[in-house]
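Bug #77: duplicate submission created two jobs. Keeping one. Sequence:
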Amino acid sequence: MNRIAQAAVISLLALAAACGKSPAPQTSTPPAQAAAARSEAEDANARFDALIQDFTKAYFAEMPEMATYFGAPDDFAPGAAAKLNDRSQEADAARRKTMEDWLVKFKASDAGALDRHHRLIRDKLITQLEGALAPARVVDYGEIFGVYGSWFTPYPVIQNSGAIIDVPNLMAAQQTVASKDDAENYLSRLAAYAPMIDDLIAKMRHDAGLGVAPPDFIIEKTRNVLKAFTAAPAAQNVLSTSFAEKLAKAKVDGAGDFVARANDIIANKIYPASKKLDAYLGEAAKSATHDAGIWRLPHGAELYQAMIREMTDTNMTADEIHQIGLEEVARITGEMDKILKAQGYKDGTVGERMTALAREKRFFYPNTDEGRAEIMSYINTLLDGVKAKLPDWFGALPKYPLEVRRVPIFSQDSAPGGYYDTPAADGSRPGIYWINLRDTAIWPKFSIPTLTYHEAIPGHHMQGAIALEQKEPLILSVLYSNAYAEGWALYAEQLAHEMGLYDNDPFGDLGRLRDELHRAVRLVVDTGMHGKKWSREQAIDYMVKTEGADPSDAVSEIERYVVWPGQALGYKIGMLKIEELREKAKAELGDRFDIKAFHDAVLTNGSAPLPVLEEDVDAWIEKTKGS
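Kept job's structure:
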């Protein structure tokens, strides 16, 4: 085991010990006693199932937007489609207490009375809730369960996610409008938008009173999003155009009247509220700092450690992760150097050579609608190729469909290069792989395959769709592990190389390594800004020089880490754990090791926090030994 794995394992073991796991009793009993024990276990399992159902309903009552995002059945989330999350200061404080109360209930459940399947579910929920609540136990500011339903963010209004991004995207991409009742729900949710903005302003004022506000450059980018959102007439806003398209597709009677009502709300309620928020941010900018890291906030160091806990499932320190990042940067750049030299690129650092490579016209699509269409076509060709190879590497295959879509234009300037949205649990909506096409210069041809394998197959869609198919509570897909999900997607990039998807494509393989280098760089710059007081500019400069990143893309990436402290750490830490578990399985099973069975062991137990994933894989190893 290398030093990187040792550091992660020590932290994971500490977390596993904190989960309160109880081993399954190994006893030999008479038939009558065994039958009684089974009956008692069934009763305990049933009680625990009921507890989960009650928690799921309570969660979706707090987070109705997530009920829509995950396609929750109506009996779990009655009326959710007509509501938005309550983002007031009072609701945030109440949410913290509600989730703490549920954690107490799960910890009070009797692990020893449950079967192994239910014990694992219990462990996952406890571990995820502990992680999600960790930041809120340190500070009174920020937003708990804000981004994508499970993350803590230190600022309630930011440039790349949160209400002003996620609500329009949710209503455009995930909200169903197939009937008049659906249309009324849409309009009710639309009517809640302006009051939500008022709550956000009040929340920001509260946090500002505690000395908490985003840096000046985040405020500027957020204001740009608001201005882009309100620039077009109401009838051309995504909240109107997507609504009209859905009504037309479903052939809903009275569609014109519904759209007219939506336009009235957008023009006379949502736009004025958005401009009021913009004005507030304009005032806040006058006294904003330029410091990037959360070290400057009240209890900032403790908050960052809590964010590391939430986003990596470990108790590793910022210094430990920073050192891992530096070591991984050195290893990966060494591999890239060999390929570059073999292709005739011998002068300069790896970053300089990658920058030079990125200037070669042969690697780029035209920055036109035709060029963007070529990129979309290429992505679908790549997906056809990987699907053909999946049966050789996986037993379980995703049954939910997948679509590739362009990031909405209003949010593209601050959005990530690519991301993925999970399918609806009921199958009414596919998984969606989003690619940001604001400028085709950020997508040289050698970068597109790796992004596709990460976001779609065998990455996020593979993991997310298979998780939805398991006999596990929906809430486990909601309260997912960042380190597991992103670690799997980064592992999938390496797996694509093993699957032969880069054969005879040295530049594509170079793109794969550059993306892995990017994740190692993240360990350095995230801990640099939040743990070592690096500036935004220092982090951008390190990224551009080390990996040859496009400067505009580096700016977007670094500013993402500013508002999502610790999130970018999960990729590499999670990948290292999965690789470690695979090597462990190979060592212990020898000729009995089966890569398909290993992947199924990793994927078919839902979204497991890293300590629970290790327990799952260990159990599979022991079962395989005994079979």
